[in-house]
Design brief:
- The complex is a heterodimer of chains A (about 475) and B (about 400).
- Helices cover about 55% and strands about 5% of the residues of chain A.
- Chain A is an alpha/beta fold.
- In chain A, α9 links the parallel β3 (about 155) and β4 (about 180-185).
- In chain A, α8 runs parallel beside α9 (about 165-175) and α11 (about 220-245) runs parallel beside α13.
- Chain A is globular and about 55 Å long.
- Chain B is an alpha/beta fold and about 400 residues long.
- In chain B, about 50% of the residues lie in helices and about 10% in strands.
- Chain B has a 4-stranded parallel β-sheet.
- The chains are: A alpha/beta (about 475), B alpha/beta (about 400).
- At the A-B interface, α9, β4, α10, α17 and α18 of A face α6, α7, α8 and α15 of B.
């Protein structure tokens, strides 16, 4: 790692960056315009969020708060748990533990820095992790392993059975730093009685582990409060999802990242509810006024991202959607699979409900919700089995009236790359043009954004979509 | 030895084809977490699926993506080329993400290549934890597997048959343990290549025949006086799945090294402990196959595996470790790095190397790396970090 990188605490640096970005909106127009000059590599991100109005500014503030919580955790007598995006942090909030979600922290760094998270990713390789491991963990994990972040106290992940390379990153971190580790493990099926029971048994063990590590028993009143907040957030997210289905959608592409990044960082936390409320309110007004989500106005194409988005420097991916008039109708990350959502109607057993009437009901609710988080829900089993990735993607493509489907991931994603070609072929058989992006969503060195953009253009041109 | 070499280096080796030609079924399986005893009890020949004799990758690359380990790709390649036409069934296990997707890739390839998917094609869902509900899940998976085999092949798998199968397999385990003892002595009377070939052969040969040959070969070895270890460095091979005899030949070809142990998915790692021959056979099989946590797929068990490795190093008197991982095998790649850190700190020299499985396209590079490592051992002499040899 370059010596100058070692001079800065990563969490502190990112908190400062996001704080400053959020505060930009408080200046005069002239002051804000002047600022762009000083942040040439970050201006696209800052502009995008600030121009998005109150939701964008609230999101920047939320991001800054996330880092500040990590920075202040030990001072406030709280433990920090390293965790993964698909393990809901709501249980950690209910137990007074501060989450540090590696993938979100990596994505933010990748978005706002010219060199992205390269130095931190490479540091992981210096410690011995293969460079073929998923970049989404390697960014933030590199800062942790290099001692450039707040020290984590323990690790919980829920990807064994779903994503080896994700689980392996957390297991490696545990062994490398000698930190306590708990893995939630998911079977390859979903929705049957046996797997439902496994989810609960495993989740209870995880709670016991967190109690042991935090020194605090789970307070069911607190869990009830958190779940009630999740209930509100789910309803608001469902509103956003409904509005994504409108043609043209009044939801700007950038909102999709706000929906899921907020959920991965602050599920069950009132601050995320506030963000969603602002987003829903703003979007409803746009819909009522007939204002499309795309700033260019015309919605030329509707895309379903069947996996994740592209997060490298300056939000290029989202700007591209805006420039080309492409509506982003969500990805595997935006949908929450709450019962009652339209896309779960054809996918029996894949949804969850929230019941706070008793401790057992709450445990069941949160365990089943966690089992339906992005990725752990969709790619746990063979992709063409009931309720898995193919059915889910087709259901969403139909409901969101997609013109085509695009895959983006990372080369580290062994689980999707293991089946992606036949999966894409099956989607094509159902009439959807499919594009497989060959980049790394977190690392521009794998494929430059210029090349990625050219390939996207080529796909849209060759398939006669644009 | 010839019978072992033939079985270890040919996909359609004589023992499998003789069994098949006698009208009895053959079922392939992909992962060491699948109890072969169940198939034996059903009168089925269990054959560990392998990727040897692959001479191209056009089928494997068509269905798998580019960032996938070459081992499952080689298996798919052979399947697509009809090399597994002797199979009546196949069991796919989520040993790792690459291997688990053999399920879809093989089935989907079957839409393009007629007849390559065996009639019996089963997904065996092995959990990643062995405690409490993990063990319960696995036990239930075993019961479902048994029921499925019974239904498809019209056989009955009783507890008595399972206990008998366990006893037959245990006999082989004891013999392999004797082989390990011979390899651990100061004067090693068997090359690592021969020993590994014998171990790999056991994953495809009918068990009684295998045990008979192994018994005879061991008797010969015990009479042997010539030492393979004179003036040579004692090497242990660990890491990603390997059934490649030529990897061992590459190490021993320099005449300065002998492989005295391995900790690989093929090999003797799983054969060390016997399974109880009384009591509930399903529970015993579950405890043996899932309980060991010997593979990095069992996340969070690094310390147990490190301890096990240290014991094996001590027992075998290994001077150094060659740790290999197939490219895109993150599990072994990361764990090898941890092993290297912790073992080098104890004064045990380690070589960590990434490679490809299948046709030995990087044999030259591997030879160079291995040669450099052996030179390092020669210069360093015996480990100085306090590793004391334990007499076998």
């Amino acid at each position: 790692m370059r010596p100058e990188i070692r001079e800065y605490n990563y969490d502190w640096m990112m908190a400062g960056t996001l704080n400053a970005a959020g505060a930009l909106a408080n200046g005069t127009k002239k002051e804000t315009e002047m600022t762009w000059r000083y942040i040439p590599y970050f201006s696209g991100v800052a502009r995008a969020f600030i121009n998005a109005g109150p939701p964008g500014i609230a999101f920047l503030e939320l991001g800054a708060r996330y880092y500040q919580n990590i920075l202040n955790a030990h001072r406030d007598g709280k433990k920090i748990a390293a965790t993964t995006f698909c393990n809901t942090p709501s249980i950690l909030y209910a137990m007074g533990v501060v989450p540090a979600t590696f993938e979100v922290l990596t994505a933010i760094g990748a978005l706002v820095w010219k060199r992205g998270m390269f130095d931190y990713m490479d540091y992981c390789c210096e410690t011995g992790m293969p460079e073929t491991s998923c970049s989404s963990q390697r960014g933030a994990l590199g800062a942790v392993l290099a001692g450039l972040s707040e020290k984590i106290d323990f690790i919980v992940c829920d990807t064994p059975g779903v994503c080896d390379t994700n689980a392996n990153a957390f297991a490696f971190a545990s062994a490398y730093m000698d930190k306590p580790f708990y893995q939630l493990n998911y079977p390859s099926v979903l929705g049957d009685e046996r797997s439902q029971k496994y989810h609960i048994d495993d989740y209870k063990e995880m709670i016991r582990f967190i109690e042991e590590q935090s020194g605090k028993k789970l307070d069911y009143d607190q869990l009830g409060t958190v779940l009630a907040e999740v209930d509100k957030q789910d309803a608001l997210t469902a509103d956003m999802e409904d509005m994504l289905m409108l043609t043209p959608t009044p939801v700007p592409p950038i909102y999709t990242i706000m929906i899921y990044a907020g959920r991965f960082c602050f599920s069950g936390h009132p601050e995320y509810t506030r963000l969603l409320e602002i987003m829903v309110d703003t979007t409803r007004k746009r819909a009522a006024a007939g204002v499309p989500g795309l700033s260019a106005g015309e919605e030329k194409l509707r895309v379903v991202m069947c996996y994740i988005d592209h997060y490298t420097v300056d939000m290029n991916f989202y700007h591209y959607f805006e420039e080309r008039g492409i509506a982003h109708t969500g990805s595997i990350l935006t949908r929450n699979f709450r019962d009652g959502n339209k896309y779960v109607a054809d996918l029996p057993g894949t949804s969850y409900s929230i019941d706070t009437s008793s401790p057992d009901a709450m445990l069941d609710s949160i365990a089943q919700m966690n089992a339906r988080m992005p990725m752990v829900r969709s790619i746990r089993g063979p992709y063409d089995k009931q309720g898995m990735w193919l059915e889910e993607t087709l259901a969403c493509a139909k409901l969101y009236q997609a013109d085509c489907i695009i895959y983006n991931g990372t080369p580290g994603c062994r689980n999707t790359w293991g089946m992606l070609k036949p999966f894409a072929r099956d989607l094509e058989k159902h009439g959807y043009p499919v594009h497989i992006m060959n980049d790394d969503g977190f690392d521009d060195r794998v494929e430059s954004w210029d090349a990625t953009r050219e390939r996207l253009d080529e796909f849209f041109n060759v398939r006669g979509l644009l | 030895m010839d019978v072992f070499y033939e079985a270890a280096t040919r996909v359609d080796c004589r023992p499998i084809m003789e069994w098949k030609n006698s009208g009895r079924p053959v079922v392939g399986y992909t992962c060491s977490y699948t109890p072969a005893e169940i198939f034996y009890a059903a009168g089925i020949l269990p054959v560990r699926l392998r990727g040897i004799e692959t001479d191209g990758m056009e089928v494997g690359d068509t269905y798998f993506g580019p960032f996938i380990c070459s081992f499952p790709k080689c298996i798919l390649q052979l399947a697509g080329k009809g090399k597994f036409s002797f199979l009546d069934g196949a069991i796919i296990t989520p040993g790792c993400d690459g291997m688990r997707r053999l399920d879809e890739c093989w089935r989907k390839a079957g839409e393009d290549y007629e007849g390559i998917v065996p009639d019996y094609f089963y997904y065996f869902d092995v959990p990643h934890k062995s405690e409490n509900h993990g063990m319960d899940w696995y036990l239930e998976e075993l019961r479902l597997l048994v029921k499925s085999i019974e239904d498809h092949f019209h056989v009955e798998i009783t507890d008595e048959k399972l206990l008998n199968a366990i006893a037959v397999f245990n006999k082989g385990r004891r013999l392999l343990r004797e082989l390990e003892d011979l390899r651990s002595k100061d004067d090693v009377v068997v090359s690592g290549t021969d020993a590994f070939a014998a171990a790999v052969a056991g994953t495809v040969m009918p068990r009684e025949e295998y045990t008979r040959y192994l018994e005879g070969w061991l008797s010969d070895l015990k009479e042997r006086k010539a030492s393979f270890s004179d003036g040579k460095k004692r090497i242990m091979v660990v890491g990603s799945v390997s059934d490649e005899i030529d990897l061992f030949e590459l190490i021993e070809a320099r005449k300065t090294a002998v492989v005295v142990a391995e900790n690989l998915c093929f090999g003797i790692r799983y054969e060390g402990n016997e399974i109880p021959e009384t009591g509930d056979p399903m529970a015993s099989l579950a405890a043996h196959y899932l309980g060991g946590s010997v593979c990095p797929r069992m996340f969070g068990k690094y310390k147990e595996r490190l301890q096990m490795l240290k014991e094996r190093i001590l027992r075998s008197g290994a001077d150094g470790l060659i740790m290999q991982n197939i490219r895109f095998c993150d599990l072994h790649g990361a764990e090898n790095a941890l092993f290297e850190r912790d073992l080098e700190a104890l004064g045990i020299p380690c070589l960590r190397v990434e490679r490809e499985y299948g046709p030995h396209i990087d044999a030259g590079r591997m030879r160079l790396r291995i040669g450099a490592f052996l030179e390092r051992l020669s210069v360093a002499g015996k480990p100085a970090g306090g590793v004391q040899r334990r007499t076998a």
